[in-house]
Specification:
The structure is a single chain. By secondary structure, the protein is an alpha/beta fold. Helix content is 61%, strand content 9%. The strands form two sheets. A six-stranded mixed sheet has the order 6-7-8-3-9-10, with helices on both faces. A four-stranded antiparallel sheet has the order 2-1-4-5, with helices on one face. Strand 9 and strand 10 form a beta hairpin. Helix 2 runs parallel beside helix 5, helix 5 runs antiparallel to helix 9 and helix 15 packs parallel to helix 16.
């Protein structure tokens, strides 16, 4: 196995992410610990070399003073000279090189994708409500931010903290070998240094989290505006969006200034303290030398330690500040990404098999955790191959019923079975593989037309893609597509959310996707609402072909699209209030008949009674 593969960068996590910092970090890094500990050991070994450097330098000075300039290279010093050369030319470069390689090749390239892939998988499993309640840009920013911050914390902890602690420990041993009083002075300085760190770093952590939150809000605001740029331009609200963005940027600037003031104060205090150390160590050793209790080499060794530690103080402290800043960003991302807004598979869930397509809904209830809204007491049987139309005014629960069938939410009451299998006892992936869907708000990826259609069945052949597009009346316009990079036809990219297509074109590609998927259950949620009458008529035959042999649930406000359904159910206030054929419901003279009479161009008005 290559050294770069010692950490499996894409191994799945075990269980959900914890919501406390330490446990969350362990969850992020699980499976990588042996390599991380090896990298930390190499870094600590390199840090210990710092004290070794000062020790060898002191020994050389003492040997020089003892032998004089003419006798230094005599036989008595050969072992010292050889050892010093081996240390500086072989051991030290080799150990530093191994430490750098471990961090640059094993740790950094693998920890970031490891954490990001785990956070991304977890986020994909959140309910649609999780995404509805936040900015898409902000969620993406939090994933990237948390993964980067975890990587930086781990990398810096290995590269700096382990190195510095080993260096400090080696320095204490060296100073103890010189004189315990010099080591005691160094100890007092260390206490002051750690007290300074203890006071500043928690405050830096807190302000860093505030800065990260403000930065994510800027990203969310900007992405939200860009995503809806056509609406912004149509309503001439560029100034309004500019003010909103500037407001978010001002907040971010204020949080950044608060962080900057604290960081500047930390740096000043740190440099003042660092200046004291050479005075204490070199001055103390000189006093001991004057008393005959230290050698000239001891002065040089203490001076080398003092200068190196003073230099390292700034480096280590700013690294610790960066670590605490990153910890603040990790906590901020953790709070956003780890809530349990999820629909989980049963541990014993099996794959759903749909040989027939019979749907049984029993006393179904769901109100999004509220007292009102959603659906209540829905009981409905859809026989294999039966085509059911669903109508009702806006907000009566039609889309909620479909969302529960797809298990985008778990029902609060009742059950849904498909061919006798409770949908809560099968995997969500297998459930949704067996349900094709075309929605009013067609979802397009900024990928090629081919890739968007292949989303229905990624292993389909080119001929099957073309056939699905032809059945959806999409093949002709796709052949004429050209994107901004000159890609043509099925290779042309459709722009973010398919913005380069008309509503009807998006709808026909979505229909082609559903045709290619060829699932036994088909849901049409306002599938022809974006089409004009001429285009709708052109693909009506295609829709009828797609529906053949499938169990169909079709939501529509344009009632003319439902007249050929086997049955039509009418919903009102979250309940089924009428059920029958188009003719039978008209004869009954109830709510459906009122909708039919009130149609203007075939649409139900948004209010049931006006």
């Amino acid at each position: 196995m290559k050294i770069s593969e010692w950490i499996d960068a894409f191994q799945p996590s075990q269980g959900p992410p914890p919501q406390t910092l330490g446990a969350f970090m362990r969850w992020c890094l699980a499976g990588s610990w042996p390599s991380l500990w090896l990298a930390a050991f190499l870094s600590a070994s390199a840090g210990a070399m710092e004290a070794g450097t000062a020790l060898i330098l002191g020994l050389v000075i003492d040997a020089t003073a003892a032998s004089g300039p003419d006798a230094f290279f005599d036989g008595g010093n050969i072992a010292l000279i050889a050892g010093a050369l081996a240390f500086f030319l072989i051991a030290r470069p080799l150990l530093f090189g191994l430490s750098a390689s471990a961090n640059a090749i094993i740790v950094q390239p693998n920890v970031n994708p490891l954490v990001l892939s785990r956070l991304h998988r977890w986020t994909l499993g959140q309910t649609v409500g999780f995404f509805d309640d936040d900015f898409a840009g902000r969620i993406a920013q939090k994933q990237m931010q948390a993964a980067r911050a975890v990587t930086d914390v781990v990398s810096e902890a290995i590269n700096v903290v382990a190195f510095a602690l080993a260096s400090l420990f080696g320095s204490v041993l060296l100073l103890l070998a010189i004189d315990w009083r010099v080591a005691f002075g160094f100890g007092l300085w260390l206490v002051s240094y750690f007290a300074l760190i203890k006071w500043f770093l928690p405050r830096i952590r807190q302000r860093s989290a505030s800065r990260a939150g403000a930065r994510a809000m800027v990203s969310g605001q900007v992405v939200d505006t860009i995503t809806n740029i056509k609406t912004v331009k149509l309503f001439a609200h560029a100034d309004h969006e500019d003010r909103a963005a500037l407001g978010s940027m001002q907040t971010f600037r204020n949080r950044a200034l608060e962080f900057g003031y604290l960081a500047a104060g930390f740096r000043f205090a740190l440099m003042s303290l660092a200046g004291i150390l050479p005075v204490v160590l070199i001055g103390g050793t000189i006093v001991l030398w004057q008393a005959g209790q230290a050698t000239q080499g001891d002065i040089v060794a203490a001076g080398a330690v003092a200068i190196r530690i003073a230099q390292m103080t700034g480096w280590v402290s700013f690294t610790l500040m960066a670590i605490y800043s990153n910890i603040g960003e990790i906590e901020d991302g953790m709070r956003t990404l780890t809530p349990r807004n999820r629909v989980e598979d049963d541990p014993q869930a099996t794959d759903l098999s749909v040989p027939h397509g019979r749907i049984q809904i029993s006393d179904l209830g769901f109100a999004y955790g509220r007292e009102k809204g959603g659906v209540q007491g829905i009981t409905l049987t859809v026989e294999p191959g039966e085509k059911i139309g669903i109508v009702g005014a806006s907000g009566v629960g039609k889309s909620t019923l479909v969302a529960l069938l797809l298990r985008l939410y778990d029902a609060e009451k009742g059950s849904i079975t498909i061919d006798g299998a409770d949908i809560t006892k099968v995997t969500q992936e297998s459930l949704r593989r067996n349900i094709g869907m075309v929605t009013q708000e067609t979802a397009m990826f900024n990928r090629s037309a081919r890739d968007n259609i292949l989303y229905g069945r990624p292993d389909a052949t080119e001929a099957e893609v073309f056939s699905a597009a032809e059945k959806a009346e999409a093949h002709e316009f796709i052949k004429d597509l050209v994107d901004h990079k000159g890609r043509q036809g099925y290779d042309a990219h459709l722009g973010e959310r398919g913005v380069k297509l008309s509503g009807g074109q998006r709808q026909r590609i979505a229909l082609a996707r559903a045709i290619l998927k060829d699932a036994p259950v088909l849901v049409l949620d306002e599938a022809t609402s974006a089409l004009d009458s001429e285009v709708e008529a052109a693909i009506q035959t295609a829709l009828e072909r797609v529906m053949q042999g499938k169990t169909v649930l079709a939501i529509a406000h344009r009632l003319s699209t439902l007249t050929e359904m086997d049955r039509i159910i009418v919903m009102d206030e979250g309940r089924i209030v009428e059920d029958g054929t188009h003719e039978a419901l008209l004869t009954k003279g109830g709510l459906y008949a009122q909708y039919w009479d009130r149609q203007s161009g075939g649409f139900i008005r948004t209010q049931a009674a006006e």
